[in-house]
Design a protein that fits this description.
Elements: H1 17-22, H2 40-59, H3 71-81, H4 85-96, H5 100-108, H6 117-128, H7 134-146, H8 153-160, H9 164-173, E1 178-180, E2 186-188, H10 191-198, H11 200-203, H12 210-228, H13 249-256, H14 259-275, H15 284-296, H16 298-307, H17 313-329
Antiparallel strand pairs: 1-2
Length: about 350
């Protein structure tokens, strides 16, 4: 069947209230049932997807028969998926990370309940990291989850103070739940994984402490700015030209403003606000970092925002930091903030 040109098909995975309000009328809702309510049509689609993906995987291994792992196994996996395409997709990515024949038994051993995405994530994490690596894995994955925009490997490295090799190790182990989009950075393949990591009941030892990590990211942003900001950071020959008249400005930005410095300049206050509960006494290192930035690099910070075309956030950021100072510092008599 050929659809008319004016036909639009929108596929959503969650019944978010704002989406439902916008599409309450004038559209036809088709619900793909999952879990215990999964219907034959959805299961048929999942089976077809898995059959195609297994055929593709088998095609890359001379040792595997063309119809590996066989229809009975694929039907078992279809039943385990319970209509959840993200479950099926994650299993395929997990198998592709290593020798498929060796990984398939980890999925088929009976520990995964029907449609249990949490247990699937736990299986992937437990298989990927020994106990001494769990803390590092949580930090890297948590940074991706809490990041305000998709981050590059070097951004995560500098925000956490880890070696690039350590960051790459975690990222490689978690390819089944991460997506790497070239220069646009690394993201989570599905929101359910971010939700899973953020819930200690669901993720257990792999849960991320969002406040503690936000504190780390806020402090790292302040460190990056206080050590990296400087006057005329892009080495412009004159200040009499507007930014859009500097023909090689993008090249100068790439050479002089690392992506992690640009990130810190844009989002340091957001992490700062997340690092403290209302009225909580902040750590001295955060106070010192904010003081150093505001007293020593305020104009340098504004300069970076100018060249990366992010000046509109300056007013909001300054208002937010003033509020943070009044709420978190002034009541405790910390520092001289009389100019606020």
């Amino acid at each position: 069947m050929v659809l008319p040109r004016n036909c639009k098909l929108l596929v959503t995975s969650r019944a978010e209230s704002d989406i439902k309000r916008c599409f309450d009328t004038g559209v036809q809702h088709i619900e793909l049932k999952t879990g215990r309510l999964v219907d034959k049509e959805t299961s048929k689609d999942v089976f077809k997807f898995l059959t195609g993906e297994f055929s593709r995987i088998a095609g890359g291994y001379a040792s595997l028969p063309p119809k590996w792992p066989g229809e009975p196994v694929i039907r078992q996996l279809t039943n385990k998926a319970a209509g959840l395409f993200i479950w099926a997709k994650t299993v395929i990515r997990f198998l592709e990370e290593d020798v498929p024949e060796e990984r398939l038994p980890l999925i088929m051993d009976g520990k995964l309940e029907t449609g249990d995405i949490d247990q699937l994530y736990l299986t992937i994490l437990n298989n990927a990291f020994e106990h001494d690596r769990i803390g590092t894995a949580k930090a890297v994955l948590g940074t991706i989850v809490l990041g305000k925009i998709p981050l590059q490997d070097k951004d995560i490295q500098n925000l956490l103070g880890e070696s690039l090799g350590t960051v790459e190790f975690v990222l490689q182990k978690m390819q089944s739940v991460l997506v790497r989009n070239g220069k646009h950075g690394i993201g989570i393949t599905h929101q359910s994984f971010a939700d899973f990591l953020s819930d200690p009941i669901r993720s257990g030892q792999f849960s991320i402490d969002q406040q503690t990590l936000a504190h780390k990211l806020a402090f790292s942003c302040l460190q990056i700015m206080n050590s990296g900001l400087q006057f005329n950071i892009c080495k412009l020959e004159t200040s009499h030209l507007s930014n859009d008249k500097v023909t090689d400005l993008d090249k100068r930005i790439r050479e002089n403003i690392p992506s992690y410095l640009a990130y810190a300049c844009q989002f340091w206050v957001e992490h700062l606000n997340s690092a403290l509960k209302l009225g909580e006494n902040p750590e001295p290192e955060l106070i010192k970092g904010v003081q150093n930035l505001l007293y020593g690099h305020l104009l340098h910070w504004l300069e970076v925002l100018s060249v990366i075309r992010a000046v509109p956030i300056a007013a909001h950021t300054l208002k937010a930091v003033c509020k943070w100072i009044k709420v978190s510092l002034s009541p405790h008599g910390i520092g001289d903030w009389s100019w606020i």
